[in-house]
Structure formats: structure tokens, C-alpha cells
Amino acid sequence: MISRAFYFVRPYTTRADLSRLRNIGIIAHIDAGKTTTTERMLYYSGKINRIGDVDQGDTITDFLPQERSRGITIQSAAISFNWQKKYKINLIDTPGHADFTFEVIRSVKVLDGCVTILDAVAGVEAQTEKVWKQSENIPKICFINKMDRDGAGYSRTVKELITKMQTKVALINLPFFEYDPDTQTNTFKGIIDLVNQKILKWDAEDPDRVEVMEALESSGEHLENFLKGREALVEVLGEFDENLVEYFLEEAGGDYLRVPADILNRSIRRATLAQYLTPVFCGASFRNIGVQPLLDAVVNYLPSPLEARFPEVNHRNMPMQYDPAVGVLMNHNKNLCVAFAFKVITDSIRGTMIFVRVYSGVLNSNNTVYNCSRDKKFKLGKLALLHANVYEETQKLYPGEIGVLTGATVADKVSTGDTIVTHSVKRDALKSLNKNIELNLKINPITVPPPVFVVCVEPKTLGNKRAMEEALSILIKEDPSLVVSKDEETGQTLLGGMGELHLEIARDRLLNDLNAEVHIGKVMVSYKESINSPTADVTTQNETGCRFSLSVAPIPLDIPIAETIASSSNNLKWYPLGGDNNYLIVENHESYRLDDWSFQVPYSAIINAIVSSSIAALQKGGKIANFPLHSCAVKLKGDWRIPLDLENVTDILPLTRHLISQALHSLRINDYSVLEPVMNLEVNVPQKHLGSVVQDLTAARKSHILSIDDEHELEESRGGLTSIDYHRMAQRQYLPPDITLKNAQLGEVGSGNKFIRAIVPLKEMVAYTNTIRSLTQGRGTFYLSYHGMDKVGQDRLESVIND
């Protein structure tokens, strides 16, 4: 018998070997069982002594009132626990709903490995594919959950994993069923461990009891599955690991059963870290089955901070190497501490709290640090380790750690995506760091998806306006995928988000958590305007001697901005203006050298002032419907000048804002276009319903069909292999018998489902869920993701403006 006490561990010493640390995330489609699995991990690690239930609303990581009432994860939650006496796991449980995709994006940014959970009944679902792509550069293991449910299909799900995710797999354990005479059905009881050659059966009445038996002592179908599975595992690893092949032939004498577990584990680890394959496990978290082997896999197969990818930084040639003492050693400086802020929350007691990942060196409480992203120096307050909504104070955050900055000093000094540097030893030794490299070091920021829906937010009374603005400020600081803008013509405040549920949760936060006295309007699609041609150059000068000359030009919608910047002249500097694909382009200053700056006002302060005024001017909107401007470049000429004795930038803000408005005002109304968000649409439908779905998409939804394929004939490729190659790989893969696999008919060309890809205006997809259910008798599924902004045709312009 194996009890939970066997897995109970003593407290972990933070300053331990970095090779014993794992920073992992749980990713999956909504309702696949992420939070349920996390809850069992915490229980079996000894972190908690009672298992919470999502349906009862008492889980550890879903602690927000909205999460507990709805039974879904809304914001990513982090927690630390120990495993196998010597390992520490920092785990982030992420949301599964598409509206909260930014929570996944920013979590993946700081993770070293992922556990992907699949629903054995539903298989590989749309959002699973999305989060898999978002974490494509991170090693992963898969856990096929809900094997106890009717309709569960282990082999079918593995085949979908191979073909849809385009990955090779290594089956580490297989499902174990026993015949139940009472129900006259096979009941899922445990797993067949192919590596350790064991069968593990969990007690349905006692989650702490596990019966272990030798796999070779089984009989019939169980023995056959074990022998074939062991053979397949060794063979797939042998394709990657020559050392394993040599051991198999010379030491094991060609006997698959004589290859020891430690040899296999090393081979699986190397293949996983190289992302050559994905190890696959199975279980039923709600029934407490298979979680301990999954935890073993996390520490055995996923990377430590010394094996993970290097952070992407703004200095392309920055020397980096792994160092067991400091983590990622940057610029050969062992005293350099580098941390990345990836999340901000507001606690009712502790105030603003900043989640950070320490990549290099040691972050000490009360140290003076420098925010490279905002050119700010400040002193840290208390530091804390995170355990969902419970925080444990600490004096230091060591390399590889995920922790929290607390205190009033960080409230307005750090935001999501900022890079913090400091000296690992001395409390105030920033002067000893390299000014041009280390104090200018930035980890590439998190990509924030643009909002596609908006709601109007208005104070109930004029006296509530300031409280409303403060509450909105807290919201967007916590969640940068929420965007606040103002309609200059009507004076309305607009809140933009990723989806209807996203804005509904924001509404709950405003009204119930932040107690804002506001009225919130209905959800609307977020429209923009853009200009079709550049303005003429305009110039102005005020009495203080400030002189500026600029123009505004359109940025092509169909060309990636990175390519545009890369192809531009070297004497141009691009600065982003918020989230509407707007940029400030500054020509090199011809009169002054930045390394010999003699003005009282710093160069960065001047640029920041022009950035602020540009954002305000473009938000005023275009001439057609006063929608905010999108995909515009404010081009500042290189002959601008300011007086030497200018003490602040207050004169620059109105001057440049008025100048941009003047340039835009010179354009005619015909020089403007209305833009609308268009989405990538993927629809999976049975072949017999294909015609009605396509007709609805092209006629009622105004969509542009890109392709219609059989599921296994998609033209994508990965690693030099086409999807046909992965389909054949799935056919060759050994899999145990599975009745759902036969029903799915995955191997027959022309049968099964069709896969439609299209580009469609978001406006036409509102309430599409009911339509697709009606057209396909409930069998069709679809997935939407943001594609970009596109011009609205004249035939639809009036309806868009009215909307």
C-alpha cells in the first residue's frame, strides 16, 4: 500500500540546488479538470489536508468570489509546494476560457514547463490547441483526465494529440480497467506504469490507499497491453536516443523488459527537454487516480531553471549562461539581479502586489532597484512567496523563484511587463552596474491582445466620477488586456475587453469588489478609424522656444509591424502608442548628441511627453464616427528644438497634441476609413451539415472561406513533417483497445468531420453558438481568435455606425 504519508515532505530550503526547482503551469480547455488536478497535487504533496471541490466552491487556487460562484478559473493563481522530499514546484493554474487568454499568455512567459490536461471524453478541444500554440517553445507533458467517465477514450485522445498538436508521444502509463459485476461494465481503477513495470490501483473509498502489483503478474488483456506498450515506449525513445539503443542491444540483450527505469527516465527527460516528444499520462483527478505519477513526471521530465530557455532581452548579443549559484548569468556579472514583473493584483489588506520571476541573482527586501522599462529607481518593501491568496513573507527571492513585491513603494513604480534590475549583494549599488547595458536591460514585454468588445461606463453622479476613474485604473493595472478610452465627442468612458464574459467579470469587479457607483451599458463591438493617406507636414512654435514639426501617416493593415520597423531606416526610432497599432516615429535629433545631452529635462521625459500627447490626440477619433484612430504613425521631424533652460515638459504636451490634431483636421472625411475587428474562425462540423454551415457563413456572416479540409488533411507542418505525416504516425502508434476510437472513424479518408477555416467580422459572430448548434444538431464546434482590423465596406458601413 502507498499512503499519502509516503509522499509527505519536510519544508523545502529555498536556497537549494536550482536543479531541484520546477516552474510549471497547468493549461487546458475549460472544464478539462485543471483546478481539480491542482487540488489533488496539493493534497498528495501535503500542502493541504482536505481536498476542495470546484462545484462546492472551496478550492485553493480558485479563490475569487466570481470563480467560486461560476465554477471556472478567471485569473491565474500560483502556489508552491514540495515533492519527493527534495523538489520544490511553483505551479500556476491558468484559466481555460478563451476570454481570459491573456492570463495564459503572461503565465507562459515566466514558466519553464507545462502540464497539458485533456478531457478523455471531449478529446483535444479548441482552446487546448490555442494554449498549446501559445506555449510552443516550452516542454510539456500531457495528462488525459476523466478516464472514469462514460465515453472516455484514451487511444482516441492520444491520436488526436498526435494529429492536431503535431507531436510525437511517449505513452508512460496506460489505463487499467476492472470488470464490475454490479454494473456489468469495465470500471477505471488505475494505471499500468510502463516505466516501472507496475500496476497501480486506487481505492475508491480512501484517496490515500494505492495497491501496487507487478505488471508481469497480470494476465489477459492487461498483460498484453503492458508488453506491447513497453516495447513501443523503448522503440520511440530509441529513435531519439542512441545511448538507449546501445544499452538495449548490448546490456539488455534486446529484451524490452530488461531496460531499467532509470535508463528510461533519463531518455524520456532528454527527449522531453528537446521537445522531440510529449510524455502522456492518464487518470481521473476527481477520483484521485493517477495524480502521484503525474507529480513524479513533473520533477523527472520537466526542466529546472538551469535547463529552461533563456529570457528574450532587448540586447541581442547579451552573453548568457547557466550558473548554479545565480541562475541565468547575464553579461558575466554575478552581482546582477534581473526580475520580470508578469502580474499585478490589488489586495484589500496589502494593497498593490507585483508578481515577479527572478531570472538572475538574488532579490533582497529593502534593496534599491531600477525599473528599466520606466526609468525609475525605488526602494523595495517586503517580499513574499505565494500560496494562492495566502502570502508568506521572506527576506529574499532566489534565482528561479516566483514571488511577490509588496508595499506602497511599488504601487506606481512597476507594471505588468516591466524589467527590474539591482545588485544582488549591496543594498544601493546601482552605480556599479553598467549604465548602457545592465541599466538598459529589458526582457521583451508580454504581448497584449487588443480588445474587441467595449462597454460604456458612467458614474451614477458627478461626485462618483473620481472614484470610478480610480476603480478603472486598478482594473487595467491588474489586467492590461482591459483598455479604458474616452469618446471625446460624447465624453463617455469606454472599457474594452477580450469578450463578453471578460467584460462581465470586469463589471462584477467594479460593482462588487471595488464598490464603484457606476452604470454599465451593453456590450458592443470595438470599432476604430484609420486614415487612407498621410497628412502634410505641420509646424508650430510657442513663446518658450519649443518648436516641433510632424505629420501623421497610415500604417498598412496587412503588413506585420515588426517587418515594417525592420525595413525602415536606421535613423528612425519607433515608440508604441498604446494598443491600437499606433506608433510615434522619431527622426534622429540633428542638433544635439544624446551622449552629450546638456538640457535640464532628460531626453526620455521629452519623448514620453510626446507619446502621451500622441495617444490623447489619436483617441479623439476620426471624422466619420469619432472612433479612436488605429494603425497611424505620428512622424516627428528631426529639426525639433527646446530651450536649454526648459525645466519640465508641461509646455510640450498641449503643443504637440494640438499639432497632431491640426494635421489630422487637414484631411477630408473621404480620407478616413472605419475599421472593425475580424476574427480567425475554425469550425468543425459533420460532413452532412457542411453545406448549411458554409451557406450561413458566406451569406449571413459575411465571412471569407479560406479552406475546407478533412480533419487529417490540413496543410500545416511542424518540424519538417506535414499533417499527413502525423496522421500516419498516429496510425502506427501502439494504442490499447478503445471502443470510442472505432466510433470516431479517424482513419477513413472522406468520412468524419470537415474543418472550415474562414475570416469573419466579429459583429456577425455575436450569438453564433446557438446558430451552430441548430445547424449541426449540436455536433458542430467552433473557435474564434483575433485576426486583425479590416476596413468596413460601404455596403455595411451604415449598419456598423448605427451599431
Q: What can be said about this structure in brief?
A:
This protein is an alpha+beta fold and 803 residues long. The protein has 20 helices and 40 strands.
Helical segment tally? 20
Q: What CATH first level of the largest domain would be assigned?
A: Alpha Beta
Strand order, main sheet: write it out: 18-17-23-14-15-22-19-20
According to CATH, the fold-level topology of the largest domain is Rossmann fold
Weakly predicted, low-confidence segments = 1-14, 714-718, 744-751
Radius of gyration: 28 Å
What count of domains describes the coordinates?
5
The major pleated sheet works out as: 8 strands, antiparallel
Residue share in helix: 25-40%
What overall geometry do the principal axes of the alpha carbons give? globular
SS-based structural class?
Answer: alpha+beta
The amount of beta strand, in percent, is 25-35%
CATH architecture of the largest domain: 3-Layer(aba) Sandwich
Query: Can you say what the CATH homologous superfamily of the largest domain is?
Result: P-loop containing nucleotide triphosphate hydrolases
Mean pLDDT, as a whole number?
A: 84
User: How many strands in all?
Assistant: 40
Q: Please report the distance between the alpha carbons of the first and last residues.
A: 65 Å
Subcellular location: Mitochondrion
GO molecular function, one term: GTPase activity
Domain Tr-type G: 19-306
Keywords: GTP-binding, Mitochondrion, Nucleotide-binding, Protein biosynthesis
